[in-house]
Write a structure and sequence with these properties.
The chain is α/β, with parallel strands linked by helices. It has helices at residues 15-23, 25-35, 124-144, 147-154, 185-193, 198-207, 217-231, 242-252, 262-271, 289-298, 316-319, 326-330, 358-365, 374-381, 386-405, 409-418, 432-439, 456-469, 522-532, 549-553; strands at 56-61, 66-70, 82-84, 87-89, 102-105, 110-112, 234-239, 279-284, 303-308, 332-336, 423-427, 448-453, 472-479, 485-486, 493-494, 504-510.
């Protein structure tokens, strides 16, 4: 069905949704843009393929290390340097580069390399030596002739995915020590002062090594790779996402993340059924990784009620590394734990209707653009440069913009009281049982909840308590195990040093406190256990055949010894 002007009619919103949209100034502005077909929805904007001013990127090195870097131009007056290998590098030259670009750490800073370059640079000696080895092997086969050629023809159908490498040398006669290298630290320091490139230093080390020629091909490759990582370091610019941020922080210090790997974070988002338009209640002590991941997945549609402890949220700086848009960051609403948790594990009462919201009154008194006060004008007259005045006005505009778009505490509490949350996510270091029981009243019936903990014992108690009170169904306590494999020609094996566990997850679906009923009672569980054999290792009991009842009534014969 279409209207007279050929456009599709807009669906009518329910009464509660219409009131909700009218209360939120940002949602009403976006709604006006959506009604106008000429103005695109800003939340559907495609991510840029190049680095923008002020965005965070991850510099991933070949040895597995990852560094966060904020890219800022010189025009902003302050270029945040990133410290790598005990040296600071400016990031203004990274603005405008494509994601995935390979950079090299040079004397002048981070130097972008041409397309096609890899993080691990190729060495011409290794390439020529490999070609020479294959050529020598082929020449040896041709010189044999006769029956050997026929045997080679018969073996053409064999698997040649990983051809064998002929080793002419071995390491049995190598004497490792300082005498095998003719160059010392003074020579290397002189090459660096002269401005020699990293590849030149690596070539000089190879030429002055007396034991390099007697090594095997694998030993040569490992030697060159080790020297390239030290004197010719390279990195790749990676976009900051929930996956890459969690991976980088886990490599740096996994204890701050409660040993939560990136695959565990993906399972938390999947089990909680986070999607656009939902309202999620998040309580975490995990540096804001879960809150940022939920905001990134929702894309600005919906709400995220993030509960914090203390005077203010402790992980606002970490959320800036997600490079969230205005709609995504505005969808995060902050709630203090004192306004949520009650002593009797019930819902917090809604704020009284006659409550005076001083923050709302202050926000309504603000005007945009905000006029300058007399003391502000006098302070700006003391500034000598126009650049200082522009920076001061930019900070002032940003501060007032945050005040105009930020929800007050009473407004957020009203949001929590008016609508039940679609999912609850808990990632805490404290007792998960008390936390879940305190947040469960705010979850809608049939809504999923996810509780993550580093250890299994607290979750076991929470599992038994939920099962005893019959508050949820589909309770499941699980852990994940992930192993990374090295896949190279002829050298495929798992990594030797891996994490033992990525934490434990408790999932379930809330039952309605009025009409909900857990049919899996103790008697039904005993019946199921008897059918499947009870405990592990015991065989199920065989039922007696009714046709053999007569035989069972007959007297049993005594056995002869």
């Amino acid at each position: 069905m279409s209207t007279d002007n050929g456009t599709q009619p807009q669906p009518e919103l329910p009464q509660d949704k219409a009131e909700e949209k009218s209360k939120d100034p940002s949602l009403s502005a976006i709604a006006e843009n959506n009604n106008d077909s000429s103005v695109p929805d800003p939340r559907l904007e495609v991510q840029s393929g190049v680095v923008r001013d002020g965005e965070y990127v991850i510099l991933a090195f070949g040895d597995g290390r990852k560094f966060f870097a904020q890219c800022q131009t010189r025009a902003r007056g302050k270029s945040t340097p990133v410290k790598i290998h005990k040296r600071s590098y400016h990031t203004w030259q990274l603005v405008g580069l494509k994601y995935g670009k390979v950079l090299e750490l040079g004397q002048s800073g981070l130097v972008p390399l041409p397309d096609g370059e890899e993080v691990i640079p190729s060495n011409p000696y290794i390439a020529e030596n490999a070609v020479a080895t294959v050529a020598a092997t082929a020449a040896t086969d041709d010189s044999k002739g006769g029956a050997d050629v026929a045997v080679a023809e018969d073996n053409e159908m064999e698997d040649t995915t990983f051809p064998p490498i002929q080793q002419d040398n071995d390491n049995r006669h190598l004497l490792m020590g300082d005498k095998s290298q003719a160059m010392d630290q003074d020579d290397l320091r002189q090459l660096r002062e002269e401005g020699a490139h990293g590849s030149e230093i690596v070539e000089a080390l190879i030429e002055n090594s007396s034991s390099f020629k007697n090594k095997t091909e694998f030993s040569k490759a490992k030697y060159i790779l080790r020297k390239q990582k030290k004197y010719q370091p390279r990195c790749r610019m990676v976009r900051c996402t929930a996956y890459t941020i969690c991976e980088a922080l886990y490599i740096k210090d996994s204890r701050k993340l409660m040993n939560m790997r990136e695959d565990t974070l993906g399972q938390i988002l999947s089990y909680s059924n986070v999607s656009a338009g939902c309202q999620a209640l998040v309580f975490e002590n995990c540096m804001g990784i879960v809150t940022g991941a939920v905001a990134e997945r929702m894309g600005g549609y919906g709400r995220i009620l993030s509960v914090y402890t203390g005077q203010q949220p402790a992980f606002v700086e970490m959320l800036s590394r997600f490079n969230l848009t205005f709609a995504q960051s505005h969808s995060i609403k902050w709630l203090h734990s004192g306004d949520v948790f009650m002593e009797d594990n019930t819902e917090a009462p809604p704020p009284p209707a006659d409550a005076i919201d001083t923050e709302l009154e202050e926000r309504e008194q603000l005007k945009w653009p905000c006029p300058l006060q007399e003391h502000t004008r006098q302070y700006m007259q003391t500034m000598a440069k126009d650049k200082q005045k522009k920076d001061f006005l930019a900070k002032r505009c940003n501060r007032f913009a945050r005040k105009l778009t930020r929800h007050t505490t009473l407004e957020v509490n009203q949001m929590l009281a008016e609508r039940k949350c679609d999912s609850v996510i808990i990632v805490t270091r404290t007792d998960p049982t008390a936390t879940l029981l305190g947040l469960l009243p705010y979850l809608a019936p049939s809504g999923p909840f996810v509780v993550y903990c580093e250890f299994i014992e607290p979750l076991t108690e929470c599992f038994l308590e939920m099962q005893r009170r019959s508050l949820a169904i589909n309770l499941r306590l699980s852990d994940t195990w992930m192993r990374e494999y090295q896949v190279l020609p002829g050298r495929t094996h798992p990594n030797m040093n891996i994490s033992q566990s990525g934490g434990f997850i408790l999932t379930g679906i809330k039952l309605c406190p009025v009409t909900g009923k857990n049919e899996l009672d103790e008697e039904l569980m005993k019946e199921i256990r008897s059918e499947i054999g009870g405990r592990r290792g015991r065989k199920p009991k065989k039922k007696e055949n009714p046709s053999n009842e007569k035989d069972s009534n007959m007297p049993k014969k005594k056995r002869r010894r």
